[in-house]
Amino acid sequence: MWERLVESVPNVSEGRKQDTIEAIAAAIREVERVRLLDVDPDPDHNRTVYTLVGEPEGVRAAILAMFEVAVSRIDLRTHSGQHPRMGAVDVVPLVPVRGVTMEDCVELSRRLGQEIWERFQVPVYLYEESATRPERRDLAQIRKGEFEGFSEKIKRPEWAPDFGEPTVHPTAGVTAVGAREFLIAFNVNLGTSDLGVAKAIARAVRGSSGGLRYVKALGFELAERGIVQVSMNLTDYKKTPIPRVLELVRREAARYGVPVIGTEIVGMVPQAALDQVVEYYLSLERFSPDMVLERRIQEALES
Amino acid sequence: MWERLVESVPNVSEGRKQDTIEAIAAAIREVERVRLLDVDPDPDHNRTVYTLVGEPEGVRAAILAMFEVAVSRIDLRTHSGQHPRMGAVDVVPLVPVRGVTMEDCVELSRRLGQEIWERFQVPVYLYEESATRPERRDLAQIRKGEFEGFSEKIKRPEWAPDFGEPTVHPTAGVTAVGAREFLIAFNVNLGTSDLGVAKAIARAVRGSSGGLRYVKALGFELAERGIVQVSMNLTDYKKTPIPRVLELVRREAARYGVPVIGTEIVGMVPQAALDQVVEYYLSLERFSPDMVLERRIQEALES
């Protein structure tokens, strides 16, 4: 049906108030040429991940519609949650899915950055593939200091925003927009309440401190459940697959006598990443996606 | 496109001669309203599994076309292989996939049985859901004695064929046709050449001798590789899922100090059976097929 598909998974700094979460979803649903596939609120993080897919113009319009609601309803001065954040709409990733290049998504991120500043007076940083300088590729570097520290940070010349004046929006902060490859949000829950264990494991497995190349990781408390979590982003699942990450976390946890009690995938996951899980644990000698009945029927009926 | 879909995975007693394997595939491809999805020859078993999906009438015509080639080219008097067999076309399962009931597939098996006898003089036994008496539900019971023993067996009144005279076809033997649920052929390869270990594990895990309810299992030698295999059919993967079967085989093998060195899925597998593997090994707390990007896009574009 649609030839060109972009995915966006904006992260919004509200994971508790149902009316705000739903008002943002409703704004996206009103836009044409885009579909809202998933809404995943996390009360501990006080953050919601929306997953939308559509034609580039549909995605652009949906992101602007979402900003309109988020900026009017979210006040970061009173926001608390486990996850670092710097904006009401904290980050807007744009992912090429079909019929669009990474460069198309970079171009889309620039248009959006300009429009977000002009319409909402929220300064915008371009990150990942859209970054204008190397130190802005990494979202964590941009976000360092968070909302509370950004009034100072934004005044430093090296942290001037890519779009907008160096003035933080008083309630909605600043936003990062960028093109990137598909990212899997994969969390591992541990059978302990010791946050130190989760933080130590996060350090051990993440690429930045010597772990797996395409893993970003943080340790969190899940206060409601009395446990801790290693919360990860897998930025290239083809090279650093889910099962290898899980097994490394499991080995590290075993050093502390701590069991893995469950995992979560937040938002969407590509089929190929789950196929890797099947191949890994079954030690399948000749796995091919063509073996899967539904996919073969689909192909056969389309041919 | 097609509203009514039946799957058939006929097993043919030729897994080595490429020209015969291909001639049978070509005969199926000429038939309308059916698609040949997979051809999986096994030289050790000297057996090929064809997977076809189509409208009931297409499947019926394809099975008859396959018989025509198989009966003219395969001579069981000179056939050898690891897998038990009683016919050139050894077994024809019919599986309801979409828009057809099990009863529709039973009816189709009866029509096919009548036609196979009339056109090729191959006696036919109805098995599984199509069975005319309880002791014929189980294919292994029908096949006992194999081609070599069937000239005697077929003369016993209790083993009179469901279609045809009690006379084995001289070169093509007899055939079983039946409606059944989706069956997964799952093999586990072991790091030993000791056939006794594979047979002992097969006995331990199969339902008939006290193991898992919906597992059938045999121990085989893979002579070419110098290893042995536990070759299984999972007759209801929803109730006896792949990962539980693999882990039980692994535990039993460990008793003999034997490692699992790989597994195979022969033919097709439903997506839901692979989803079980992902859920099991990741201990995913909130897995849903809707999390998979490709499936959500497909749904969203169709809605």
Describe the 3D structure:
Chain A folds into two domains: 5-179, 2-Layer Sandwich (Formiminotransferase-cyclodeaminase, Chain B, domain 1), CATH 3.30.990; 184-266, Alpha-Beta Plaits (2-Layer Sandwich). In chain A, the strands form two sheets. In chain A, strands 1, 2, 3, 4, 5, 6 and 7 form a seven-stranded mixed beta sheet that branches. In chain A, strands 9-10-8-11 form a four-stranded antiparallel beta sheet, with helices on one face. With 303 residues, the first copy, chain A, is an alpha+beta fold. Chain A has helices at 18-29, 56-73, 102-120, 139-143, 146-153, 195-205, 242-255, 271-282, 293-302; strands at residues 5-8, 11-12, 34-42, 47-54, 89-98, 124-126, 175-179, 184-190, 215-222, 227-234, 260-266. In chain A, a hairpin with a 4-residue loop joins strand 9 and strand 10. Chain A has nine helices and eleven strands. In chain A, helix 1 packs antiparallel against helix 2 (56-73), helix 2 (56-73) packs parallel to helix 3 (102-120) and helix 6 crosses helix 7. At the A-B interface, strand 3, helix 7, strand 11, helix 8 and helix 9 of A face strand 3, helix 7, strand 11, helix 8 and helix 9 of B.
